[in-house]
Amino acid sequence: FTTKGILQAAVQGELWRLKDSNGKPPGFIGILPQNAVTFIDNHDTGSTQRLWPFPSDKVMLGYAYILTHP
User: What is the residue range of the signal peptide feature (predicted)?
Assistant: First the structure.
């Protein structure tokens, strides 16, 4: 969920969130990318629950990010 939250804030203009203090991607993809499972929305956030949906006009940006990182 860390990556989703940070990415969601980044596509809204907070681009500084895209790397941590060590210059790595934030969240689990910066720690153990081989074990990370990334997502834009899932059944708990936006697809069916609509509790924390990714901005609909930024979905392709979100996918571009997660598909080009470990």
Answer: none
pLDDT tens for residues 47-67? 677 778 889 999 999 999 989
Considering the entire predicted model, what is its pTM?
0.79
C-alpha separations of 28 from 6, 31, 56, 59 in Å:
12, 5, 24, 20
Range of the domain at 59: 2-67
Domain count, the chain: 1
Q: What would the pLDDT profile of 8-31 be if each residue is shown by its tens digit?
A: 999 999 999 999 899 999 888 899
